[in-house]
Write a structure and sequence with these properties.
The protein is an alpha/beta fold. It has 5 helices and 16 strands.
């Protein structure tokens, strides 16, 4: 009976979640929404890679990128939060190292925004990976895809209005250029967001209200109380301890997985359900309430769905030795 209730609840609320951004924009007398399908434009270009020298961040030392340590031969990081920058066709992609490890995935009972299916369970990730330190920007997207579907234009704003299949095409095109990127699994996303924390926010603080103003959320997130109902330039809020920005708010981020039901059982390197109807999105967005922006919060949409509060972030996978 509980499973039936949860399924009905999702089906009832899904259309509301899908149209909410458009509703808010109309209410704010902003531009009329333009919905269009993103077409895959084939193009051929000469592959050029430029490699940056190391610099220092306030949290971790950057990794030096040389032709010998190129996109096709990415090494593992030495410590959590280590920074690696790659340049593809003149555009920089900066990543943070997320080492192998275990964490508690999901939300504890009593956490604001927790859904009944967000059962906490131990997850072990056996391989580390490099997480893009910001959402994929419009500059990154347009440089690869030769078009920009975003509603809120700005080179350093996150790309949005992209569906899951578009994101797969983006990743494939970057792999063709030598950058071995993929959408993160849902577990990889939450592990990187938490960066060792067990609270609802990556800062080590908790969300304190469902729909009101949350001072702790203001520090790390663009949501419906501070966004002016639009996206914002990436990396303007505080990063987590691993140097990763905007894991809360701004835009939802597509993950690789089909939606899976948490059972509470311990899992290793989960990949989601083997098949399904809905792909996972994480992080909350500029038009969401505080309760929808926690580290454990999950949403799901059909792979063909797109909206101007939905973007992506990618991971860079180290080469096998």
């Amino acid at each position: 009976m509980l499973n039936y209730f949860l399924s009905c609840r999702f089906l009832i609320t899904f259309p509301f979640r899908a149209v909410m951004p458009a509703y808010i924009l109309a209410k704010q007398n902003m531009k009329k929404m333009k919905i269009h399908n993103v077409s895959c434009i084939k193009f051929f270009t000469l592959l050029m890679m430029f490699f940056s020298f190391f610099s220092w961040s306030v949290r971790a030392q950057d990794t030096k990128v040389t032709p010998e340590n190129s996109a096709s031969a990415v090494k593992e990081g030495q410590k959590a939060g280590e920074r690696l920058t790659k340049t593809v066709d003149g555009v920089e992609y900066s990543f943070r190292w997320c080492p192998a490890g275990s964490f508690l995935m999901g939300a504890p009972e009593g956490e604001i925004g927790r859904d009944p299916w967000d059962i906490q369970h131990k997850v072990t990730l056996t391989r580390g990976y490099w997480m893009l330190e910001t959402e994929v920007t419009q500059q990154m997207w347009e440089n690869v895809m030769a078009e920009n579907p975003s509603q809120f234009k700005g080179a350093d704003r996150p790309v949005e209005n992209v569906n899951w299949k578009d994101c797969q095409n983006f990743c494939q095109k970057l792999r063709d250029k030598g950058l071995n990127v993929f959408l993160p699994t849902e577990a990889q996303w939450e592990y990187a967001a938490r960066a060792g924390t067990v609270t609802s926010l990556c800062s080590g603080k908790n969300i304190t209200t469902e729909t009101g103003t949350c001072p702790a959320l203001h520090e790390v997130c663009w949501y419906n109380k501070n966004s002016d109902f639009q996206t914002h330039t990436v990396a303007q809020k505080q990063p987590n301890i691993w140097g990763i920005y905007d894991m809360h708010g701004n835009v939802y981020e597509w993950c690789h997985d089909w939606k899976r039901r948490y059972t509470g059982a311990e899992v290793t390197d989960p990949l989601g359900s083997p098949s399904g109807t809905y792909r996972i999105g994480r992080g909350g967005s500029w038009c969401d309430s505080a309760k929808d922006c926690g580290s454990a919060k999950r949403f799901a949409n059909p792979p063909a769905f797109h909206s101007f509060n939905l973007g992506l972030r990618v991971i860079l996978v180290p080469s096998s030795e």
